[in-house]
Design brief:
Chain A is mainly α and 188 residues long. Chain A is 66% helix and 0% strand. In chain A, helix 2 crosses helix 4, helix 2 packs across helix 6 and helix 6 packs across helix 8. Chain B is mostly helical and 193 residues long. Classes of the chains: A mainly alpha (188), B mainly alpha (193).
Chain lengths: 188, 193
């Protein structure tokens, strides 16, 4: 993700439509992808992504430039996602699309199915762990950047990413344990 | 292996293995200190369980990065909508005709005063920060290209630029992101760590 320059951000803050369009073009995909993986529903993720960019447009003038723009934007995205998940908590009994019930191990053939299984396992993590893991594995942020986005310490981020991976492996193994001819959790 | 429960749920490993698995997780992301890397390497050689965890993390990380999200059902929000939102924050202030009149008057007076004093209005914008150069790497030895998908972002950049230089932090990190079973032992020299 290319970071916009200070001048570009000033123009965006002044309401330059072209610059705002450029920011949307550059960041909409990653933001939508992150939100989709966080909330587990494409429609809701799109609504949230629109909301994130509206919030960004309103407050980009106050962006001090102390952090990277992408870090700041994903902080907004993360807050929007977490707020949404909290609002939805009451009706959380039903799992969203990405959290669909873990597949039977017999279905797990081929890379696509394996990826789906991994996503199912990630979907069962709690929000803190999932958010940290997505920022690292999906978007490639460094631990320090993730700490900024999650407003947390480096040690906490390191631990959350580890705990997330540990739990994903545990759930993955539980699903694949019965599959003959394939050691659970081992890369092919 | 003892099981340990935390507020985030149950973690599988406990004791020494838990610490090494945490290190392995950081190592995969290239976020590990050299001294830790050395002790981790020693442990991984003797612990298939932790090696399996490290390989699992590499594999799932790759799958996660390669999974595209579902296509968008609508077009993303447009710049003109955002521009309206960006301008909206001060609208109440500008609605005041009296303040608008004062602002216009001040501006006119400022321009007149400026031209009288021979000042020039305007100037160049703030220059964009220069792009960071790619890490300079010199050719030393080649690496199996099949490892490349496992590399973290900075290492991938270094790989793209050429070959990782031996004895550098990059190479040490590279060792940790390379599945042990596929690593060419001949290239490994522990004295570098």
């Amino acid at each position: 993700m290319r970071e916009p320059s200070a001048d570009e951000l000033r123009r965006a803050a002044a309401g330059d439509e072209r610059m705002l369009d450029n920011l949307v073009r550059a960041y909409y995909g990653p933001v939508y992808n992150y939100l989709y993986r966080l909330v587990g529903d494409a429609g809701e993720a799109e609504d949230l992504a629109q909301e994130v960019f509206l919030r960004m447009a309103r407050s980009v003038g106050g962006f001090g430039g102390r952090a990277r723009f992408s870090t700041w934007l994903f902080q907004i995205a993360r807050n929007a996602g977490i707020d949404h998940l909290r609002r939805r908590e009451a009706e959380r009994a039903r799992l969203p699309a990405v959290l669909e019930p873990l597949r039977s191990s017999r279905d797990a053939v081929g890379e696509y199915e394996e990826a789906q299984l991994v996503w199912s396992c990630i979907g069962t993590l709690n929000e803190d762990l999932r958010s940290a893991l997505l920022l690292r594995d999906l978007l490639g942020f460094s631990y320090r950047e993730i700490a900024e986005i999650l407003e947390s310490t480096l040690a906490t981020v390191k631990w959350r990413i580890y705990a997330a991976r540990e739990q994903v492996q545990e759930r993955y193994r539980a699903v694949t344990a019965t599959e003959p001819g394939r050691a659970p959790g081992l890369p092919r | 292996m003892r099981k340990k429960t935390t507020r985030y749920g149950k973690t599988r490993a406990a004791g020494d293995c838990r610490a090494f698995r945490e290190l392995a997780s950081s190592a995969v992301d290239g976020e590990i200190h050299e001294l830790e890397a050395y002790s981790l390497e020693r442990h991984l050689r003797s612990c298939p369980c932790c090696r399996e965890f490290r390989d699992f993390v590499l594999r799932t990380g790759l799958l996660v990065r390669q999974s595209p999200p579902p296509p968008l059902a609508r077009r993303p929000v447009e710049g003109r909508v955002l521009a309206r939102a960006a301008g909206g924050r001060d609208r109440s202030w500008w609605k005041s005709r009296r303040l608008l009149g004062v602002a216009a008057g001040s501006l006119a007076a400022g321009i007149l005063l400026g031209s009288a004093l021979g000042l020039r209005v305007g100037g160049e914008g703030v220059a964009a920060p220069a792009e960071l150069p790619l890490p300079r790497v010199t050719a030393a030895r080649t690496l199996d290209p099949s490892y490349v998908p496992y590399l973290s972002r900075p290492l991938a950049v270094a790989w793209d630029a050429g070959v990782i230089r031996p004895g550098t932090a990059d190479e040490k990190r590279l060792f940790w992101v390379t599945p042990m079973s596929r690593y060419d032992e001949a290239h490994y020299r522990p004295e570098r760590l």
